[in-house]
Specification:
By secondary structure, the chain is an alpha+beta fold. The protein has 15 helices and 26 strands. The strands form seven sheets. It has a five-stranded antiparallel β-sheet. A four-stranded antiparallel β-sheet has the order 3-2-4-5.
């Protein structure tokens, strides 16, 4: 049972303890709030391979919303089993940082230890860090009588939630003391006995640090599962109340196994899964859309991250907020993992991300490469090699990874889930100001605007009779359409570009490649400009001095990105970039055509108005959404299309070759512009 004594000249801490073996975290204690002499009284059993490998113990001070502060570390040598450890800082070994008291029992394991450890390593030792046991669904409804923080007697409140490493931040409601958020999100429950959710309320201030308005906590161990609880939480260290709806649901949605044990290779299990997601069960458990199985086979030609010319690679597989990882293969540039990961699919439009890292004992892992694979692009049962890309997926890095993917889903459930809000990721990078990104988003918006301008010029040319034949055809079409116009023709007309582009694609005349090439040109030097922006920011102190300008730039940058993305998504819907969504649009437009044709418009408008006016009365805690925007959020923008790498080939014997291309300018200028591109022995990779 650990006991920690931390001595400080003033203030308090919120300490917790991490335990590591061979550089991997195997246990993390609970947080003891506001205590310099905490008593945890926790017990954990760990499997060890080698008694000469010490147990590394690190103590941190929990800081909500910030990076946790390091408070000291020590090594527990299993050969001597010291029960009292003096905490030290490796950079300041003379400083006394307190002590940690442990009660340790070392028990020999009978049988083949190596085999037992290999089979239990992922399922037992790292279970707390990887496998989740249930879902905590939280609806943030409203706040009441919050504390005024601004001179006008109001506040601009938002809420932060944290459950271990999972975080969520609500939107900001301006100038109110009784905000209405009505947001819903999910946390994963790693501990069967529950846990704590830390909640803090903040007042948004442009140009300076946000003001703290209060905190509260939810103890999940006190809430029964499989039912919804309304919680009115009084804020500590502040004023007012938060209203939440919390639902705990048990789940077994993720799993890890070896290649020799996986469910889709078992004919009986596969039949059961196919029956579970058959069309006959389309309205049974709408949230359970499907299942995806990922076989992580091996990687080849990875980047050397260590001074020895080797790496210690491990692989992390992520689907939305689900995250699993393989074991580490030490000192190897061609590792073999042979692991099978299984995820439940809640949104068929999710993107599967596979990232390779290099393990470092006392530092964060080094990035080696990443691939992003949309679930709808998976070809079941094919083993393929995927080229690893950079973090932003804008260019290739060294190495390939071999994966075999299977996805089974119900098309009806997937279509219905498309019309509800997309699940937010609780681990996301903070936005940053970037000149390159601002310019890129501006160019994307300009492309959309230029398309509308060109369309207007084309129509105007018909009025100007620049081409008599075209103007005559346009005039006759105008007369016929206006004379016979009915409202049902609007969705019917939107079917025409979908059908036309489908015919072009089927005939081999794909017009989408030009858009991809244009966006690739925009992204070409993005990585270099990001580094240059970082260096300029450090030299000038821009980020620290001009917070107001930073907020404005981020807002403009995000607005440009959103406008450009929606314009590109509308275009990509009609371009059959994602055939599933284009077929879904055809179904929706056909249904709309039939409804508008047979039902008078006044009845449709009346039904819509009655639904809008009575929605709040029927369900006071309903969360508003727009089905059209939710649908478009699943369609990838041009940048996302470029970022999703195609599989290289199914033949593992073929290797990529990198071609360096240098281009000069005319008239000549000093220097050459060079770029490196991977090419493969594949019919479609040709050079013009």
């Amino acid at each position: 049972y650990p006991r920690l004594d931390i001595f400080a000249s003033s203030g308090t801490s919120d300490p917790y303890v991490k335990f590591k073996i061979s550089g991997k975290e195997v246990f993390r204690s609970k947080i003891i709030h506001k205590n310099l002499n905490p008593v945890w009284d926790e017990k954990v059993s760990l499997l060890v391979d080698n008694l000469r490998e010490p147990l590394y113990v690190k103590v941190f001070d929990y800081d909500f919303g910030l990076q946790d502060d390091f408070m000291g570390s020590a090594y527990l040598y299993l050969e001597t089993l010291d029960v009292s450890l003096d905490l030290k800082d490796p950079h300041y070994p003379d400083h006394n940082l307190g002590s940690l008291e442990l009660a340790v029992t070392l028990t020999p394991k009978e049988g083949d230890i190596r085999e037992t450890h290999q089979s239990l390593r992922l399922s037992d030792v790292h279970r707390k860090a990887q496998l989740w046991r249930g879902i905590v669904s939280i609806s943030l409804i409203e706040g009441r009588d919050l504390q005024p923080m601004d001179a006008n007697g109001f506040s601009d409140p938002y809420v932060k939630f944290r459950m271990r490493h999972q975080k969520y931040k609500s939107k900001t409601i301006n100038k109110t003391l009784n905000p209405q958020w009505r947001e819903q999100f999910d946390f994963h429950l790693y501990d069967e006995q529950g846990g704590f959710i830390d909640i803090t309320v903040w007042d948004k201030d442009a140009g300076k640090k946000d003001d703290f308005m209060g905190r509260c906590q939810v103890d999940l161990s006190l809430l029964p599962k499989e039912c919804t609880h309304r919680l009115d939480l009084t804020l500590e260290e502040g004023e007012g109340t938060l209203v939440l709806l919390v639902t705990l649901t048990a789940s077994a949605a993720v799993s890890i196994s070896d290649l020799s044990v996986n469910m889709l290779d078992d004919p009986h299990e596969r039949r059961e899964i196919l029956h579970r997601y058959s069309l006959l069960r389309s309205f049974h458990n709408i949230k359970d859309v499907g299942v995806v199985q990922v076989k992580v086979i091996r990687a080849e030609g990875l980047m050397a991250a260590d001074v020895t010319g080797k790496s210690d690679p491990f692989c992390v597989v992520e689907l939305s907020n689900d995250r699993l990882q393989t074991h580490t293969v030490y000192k190897n540039l061609n590792p073999e993992w042979n692991k099978v990961f299984t995820f439940n699919v809640k949104d068929i439009h999710s993107v599967l991300e596979v990232t390779v890292y290099d393990e470092d004992r006392d530092r964060s892992a080094d990035f080696l490469g990443k691939v992003a694979i949309p679930l709808l692009s998976i070809q079941n049962g094919e083993r393929k090699a995927y080229a690893l890309k950079s973090k932003e997926l804008t260019g290739p890095t060294k190495g390939v990874i071999f994966l075999e993917l299977d996805v089974i889903y119900n098309a009806v459930k997937a279509g219905l889930r498309t019309l509800i809000p997309i699940e937010q990721k609780y681990i996301e990078e903070e936005p940053r100001v970037s000149k390159q990104l601002l310019l890129q988003n501006f160019n994307r918006v300009r492309r959309c605007i230029m398309f509308l301008i060109n369309a207007g010029c084309y129509i105007n040319s018909c009025f100007e009779w620049e081409s008599p034949q075209r103007s005559i055809c346009a005039f006759l079409l105008f007369v016929v359409v206006v004379w016979n116009f009915e409202l049902y023709m609007i969705p019917l007309a939107l079917l025409l570009p979908l059908a036309w582009n489908y015919i072009l694609i089927s005939s081999g005349k794909d017009t989408r490649q030009g858009d991809v090439v244009t966006v690739e040109d925009l992204l070409e030097d993005e990585d270099e400009d990001y580094d240059r922006d970082d260096k300029d920011s450090e030299k000038k102190g821009f980020m620290n001095k001009l917070y107001a300008i930073q907020d404005v730039c981020i807002s403009v940058q995000s607005a440009l990105d959103e406008v450009a993305s929606y314009g590109e998504r509308i275009k990509n819907t009609f371009n059959w970039t994602v055939p599933f969504l284009s077929w879904l649009a055809i179904v929706a437009l056909c249904v709309a055509t039939i409804i508008v044709y047979f039902i008078p418009l006044r009845y449709i408008v009346l039904a819509w108005g009655v639904n809008k006016f009575t929605k709040k009365l029927r369900d006071p805690y309903t969360i508003d959404n727009n089905e059209l925007l939710d649908f478009l959020s699943r369609v990838p923008s041009d940048v996302q299309v470029v970022g999703a790498p195609p599989s290289l080939h199914s033949n593992p014997s073929i290797r990529p070759v990198h071609l360096s291309i240098c281009t000069s300018t005319y008239p000549p200028r000093r220097g050459l512009k060079c770029s490196t591109h991977p090419i493969y022995n594949y019919p479609t990779h040709t050079l013009p």
